[in-house]
């Protein structure tokens, strides 16, 4: 058992966290939104109410919660104790360098943007790294929006300056015992941390199977979704709120979790599966559920990789506010591209939509919503051949596919919205995939390999949605249980 939080790169122990929070006065929130509906705003409001001095850091806003905003951390003219990051993982390393430069004491990363490499850099510079899940209750209270929801022992401190978080720390010991053990052969190993994986874990735990989860992070695509209106039981819920509720439910069943590393490969030998991680750590099981979902499809053009996080973005829901009064491009012609356009038109000066194909593939209703906006320029049958810029995006190189003519247009950024790729790499040498790379499953979530099940967006199941992934996760766990019973293994 370790005295650290469950994230491998958090170097703050339970008692450290209590003292960090007790002693901190100033918290800079990088990526804080000025929209009261956004989770970052609610966290900031909560912290302010608790007596912390909050400093918004966001080039797209002038102020939030009555406090002046600064474009970057290095512009903040006063001492910062904690840097709280609300940006996408790709932006984290740059923010961390700035945190080191200004001499902050602690970097606090939110669940969903955890970046272990950046965390290691923070630790090597002698700063504390706190991962958000170490402060689940504080976070939950902030997301729940009501200080009244905080347990009594916390509320007693509510008006006496920064909180005493000692109450919170008992929850951590539950997580400390819950790392999967490479010596055990599990009934089931679940790969992934999205709705499919988390639902499968709850179903497997309720069947009393020995089960663990291995994932890079928790939430999956749900964490990138601002508002969800089609998950039954909630008229509207933010993606991060729903992730929090799913995680709580998994924790309730004390499912061991290995988090923060990529799964490299799943192999099967003599009825046993071995799941190997990037670090070569390996776990054994009798069954496996692959629930690794999908990732953004890259354009694969020069400049894209180098400028990711410096103007190249993949999630308008997360990053649109950073393009206030800017010239921004969107690559794509389907629903996700038009959704990004819709978000960006609210903040940017000019939005140029570029589609490789002819016409637009999105639903008519969303095209109609934006097409007459005078800030929008729609160009189809164009190929993006390069993204230009040194420190940040300055231009987009375009080829007219009808005439062959090439031009460069000035730009501050580009959102790549050209679809998603299935994360089926760990089983590409084991299971049958369709031409799109999705794992082929039947209606019992069975793959062509006995004991290997698939669920959610990584599979051939149509209609990629949270409720469908959750349902498929449940089905896969029940099928795995049925398989083990039939084998006489449980
Ligand atoms: C911007 C956006 C908005 C959306 N809005 C909605 C909506 O409003 N309503 C709705 O129902 N659906 C919505 N969706 C779709 C929905 O989010 C997905 O269908 C759902 O999240 C899929 O769940 P999943 O568990 O199958 O996979 P994912 O959510 O993709 O989760 C996959 C998990 O596996 C992990 N993983 C992947 N590869 C590896 C690896 N090699 N090693 C370790 N871990 C790995 C990931 O870190 C992640 O935790 C939206 C999607 C996006 C991108």
Write the layout of secondary structure elements.
Elements: H1 14-23, E1 26-30, H2 39-49, E2 53-57, E3 63-64, E4 67-68, E5 82-85, H3 92-102, E6 106-109, H4 116-124, E7 128-131, H5 136-144, H6 152-155, H7 170-176, E8 185-191, H8 195-206, E9 211-215, E10 227-228, E11 237-238, H9 239-252, E12 257-259, E13 263-269, E14 272-277, E15 282-290, E16 294-296, E17 312-313, H10 316-319, E18 327-331, H11 335-345, E19 350-354, H12 364-370, E20 376-379, E21 382-388, E22 395-400, E23 406-410, E24 413-416, E25 420-422, E26 452-454, H13 466-487
Helix pairs in contact: 2-5, 3-4, 8-9, 8-13, 11-12
The structure holds flavin-adenine dinucleotide.
Written overview of the protein:
The protein has helices at residues 14-23, 39-49, 92-102, 116-124, 136-144, 152-155, 170-176, 195-206, 239-252, 316-319, 335-345, 364-370, 466-487, and strands spanning 26-30, 53-57, 63-64, 67-68, 82-85, 106-109, 128-131, 185-191, 211-215, 227-228, 237-238, 257-259, 263-269, 272-277, 282-290, 294-296, 312-313, 327-331, 350-354, 376-379, 382-388, 395-400, 406-410, 413-416, 420-422, 452-454. It is globular and about 65 Å long. The protein has 13 helices and 26 strands. It has 490 residues and is an alpha/beta fold. The two termini are 28 Å apart. Strands 8, 9, 12, 13, 14, 15 and 26 form a 7-stranded mixed β-sheet that branches. A 5-stranded parallel β-sheet has the order 2-1-5-6-7, with helices on both faces. The model is unreliable at 1-9 and 133-177 (pLDDT under 50). The protein has 3 domains: 14-175, NAD(P)-binding Rossmann-like Domain (Rossmann fold, 3-Layer(aba) Sandwich); 180-296 and 420-487, FAD/NAD(P)-binding domain; 312-416, FAD/NAD(P)-binding domain, CATH 3.50.50.60. Strand 18, helix 11 and strand 19 (350-354) form a beta-alpha-beta unit.
